[in-house]
Every structure is written in structure tokens, then in C-alpha cells.
Amino acid sequence: MRIAVLSGKGGTGKTTIATNLAANKKNSILIDTDVEEPNSHIFMKPNIEENIAVKVNYPVVDTDKCTLCGKCGTFCRYNAILPAKNNVLVFEEICHDCGGCELVCPTGAISYKQREIGKIHCGKTKYDINMKYGDLNVGEVSGVRIIEKLKDMTKNEEVVFIDSPPGTSCATVAAIEDIDFAVIVTEPTPFGVSDMKMVVEMLRRMNIKFGVVINKAGLGDDEIYDYCKSENIDILEEIPFDEKIAKLYASGDLLSYEIESYKEKIMTILSKIA
Amino acid sequence: MKIAVCAKNEGLKSEVDNRFGRAENYVIYDTEEGNAVTIENSAKNEPSGAGGSATRLLSENKVEVVLAPELGPKAVDAIRAFGIEAYRFNDVKTVEDAINKYKDGSLEKFITSTTNSKHGLHRA
Question: Which candidate from B56, B120, B124 shows the least CB-CB separation from A82?
Fold first, then answer.
């Protein structure tokens, strides 16, 4: 079973919920797919045993075979390959590794080389479960390949918790593809509700079942409750806006291991989803 | 010879645009004919590599000289690969002013970009 934790808005508590769920579910594994800014490991404190390089392809043009027909440049929507007057320029750092230029090249002049865009770190956490997290190199345009590799490496695990990237971008779609359930973590603020609506639309289009955890309850207004009611969205649990949680978070502790009442809330969520 | 100038609007009286790859339009001035045509920059909303795509567009329009306020590192590579010359303008209001300064020989030629990053702003 694969369960993703996502939010729309950043900073609502995805990592807090994802790490607490995983740390309270025996034999689960946690993967942090927010590869632009991974932080689950700060709470899970894994003993890293393995670092795996993630590589992507970029095109290389054989100038003896190339006729400068221009088809590769017209095809590439990111302008990563640019047929010029006497040669073809390749801007490898904006290539999305789709393989299209090789397919449209009529003379077979394009082959690929590999370059590293980031790493996957694997280890056992202090909470006795395994975790893996991706780390995209600074300056890279897309972490999708790292996310796909994280998912592929854990496809045979019994229970996988996925700490997703914020928003509804390609990276988020890659993180939640083929999952069984999504936990939306939101906060009762106008931004929390607005960004969550986009997540709901995305999940419904992808036919993924989901429920909502309202974090920082008591803050903001009631719009989130009205919205969930009108859309028949299940509220799995509410976690109050509480200075104690902020302090635990800031010191890198897991709230369910420090405060019994929050452990109960995490167990309630787990009983409903896994 | 055709000279392209980054422009916000149309014609010689247009205000110059302060970007190259994502300029709104290019005013292309023909030095032999003495007339100007405006083309829309089809690359201005590209997700990435707008400078390279814009250079390709200008090359297709037989442009040999580009006048721009700044060029990104990828655009500099592209301009060179298409055999186009680029000159930097500053303190210029209209397309016409930029062309006059070019004719005076008072514009500096781009050799490399002044930005330090390897390529562009790395925005997807």
C-alpha cells in the first residue's frame, strides 16, 4: 500500500504528518520525494548506508551524420537542442531527458550521454523503519527522475509513505502516480484552502482516494470546513495550532513520540488509512 | 543588412525592451532599404531557452546584427553559433536611438555575457 502526504500550500505540515505516520507503522518505509528541499530525514535521523547517484540523459550530436535539418530544435519544447548555422548547440541543463530528439532525427545523428542530477540516500531511522530521500542538485530544472527512481526502488514494499513536494507540479504528479491513498495536509487559512482546491482537482482527475488532515486547527477561519462539507471530503483528523508542536518541530523531534495525545491522533489517522 | 532591436511595441519609435530572449517584439531595420518591420517574438513565453529560440527566429529573418541591453549566457552561445553580431545598448529610449548609436559606432560589442551563472536563470 502506498500512501502519499501532500498539501498544495507549502508549510502546512506534510513532513510532520508523513514522518509521524511512518514512525508509528511497523515495517513501513518512508520516502521523501520533495527532492528540491527534502527534510524528513531531519526528523527521522537515518543512519545513511547507501548513496545512489541519479543520472539523466542528454543528447550528443554526431556532426558527420547531422544535416542541420532543424527537426530536433523544432521538436524540443524546452529549447535544449538548437540547430544553428554549422553546428547544433546542446544546453544539457535544460534537457528534460524525454528522448524525443533522437526519435525525430532522420539521420540517426543523436545519441545520449549521462550526467548526474542528484542522489538518493538510504538508511535505517532511529524509529526502526527504513527511509530513502532524494536530493536534487542545485540549479537542476526537474527532480522527476529522482522521484521515479525512489518509487521504483520501493515498489515491492508492503507500506510506503510518500512525503510529496508541495503544489501540483510535474514533481507532485510523479510522486503520487499509482498510489492507493492521499492524505492532504492543510491549514485553515485562505492560502491553505485555495491551494488545496487545486490538489483536490488533481487527485480527482487521477482517480485517487483521499482524506484531509487539518493542521494548525483554530488558526484562520472556517472556510476549510465549509469547503470539505460542500465537497463531501472526509476530514481524517484535526491537529490544533499549538506552541508545543512548533517547539518540538524546531528541535527536530517527532510530536507523536513526545506527546501522548498527538500519538493518539496519528494512530487515528493510521486506523482510517492503512 | 538587417538589424534587429529588442522592442516593447512596433516601429522605430517604439520603446526598447529591456530583455533579449523574452522581448515582446523585434524591430528589424533594413540598412539598404531604410525601412523597418516589426515581428512578434514567438519565443517570449517559452518554458526555457527563450534566448536560443529567439536567435533562431532572427536568423530565419536574415538578421545579421542584434541590438540588446543584455544577453544571457545561452543567448551569447546561440548568437555566435548563428553567425550574428550583437551589440549592447544602455541609456537608450527608442529603437531609433539604438540604431543611431549603432551607426555612430558607439555601441559595445558582446563578447561574453556579463552574468556569471553557467546558463540562464535555471527556471523551468
Answer: B56
CB of B10 within 8 Å of any CB in chain A? Answer: no
The residue ranges of every structural domain in chain A are: 2-46+125-273, 57-116
- Is 3.30.70.20 the CATH classification of the domain at A57-116? yes
User: Which contacts qualify for A37-43: CB closer than 8 Å, 24 or more apart?
Assistant: A38/A133, A38/A134, A38/A135, A38/A163, A39/A15, A40/A15, A40/A131, A40/A133, A40/A163, A41/A121, A41/A131, A41/A133, A42/A252, A43/A15, A43/A16, A43/A19, A43/A252, A43/A253, A43/A254
Interface confidence, given as ipTM, is: 0.84
**Residues A85, B81: C-beta atoms closer than 8 Å:** yes
Class of domain A2-46+125-273: alpha beta
- Each residue's pLDDT tens digit, B7-55: 999 999 999 999 999 999 999 999 999 999 999 999 999 999 999 999 9
A247-259 pLDDT, tens digit per residue, is 999 999 999 999 9
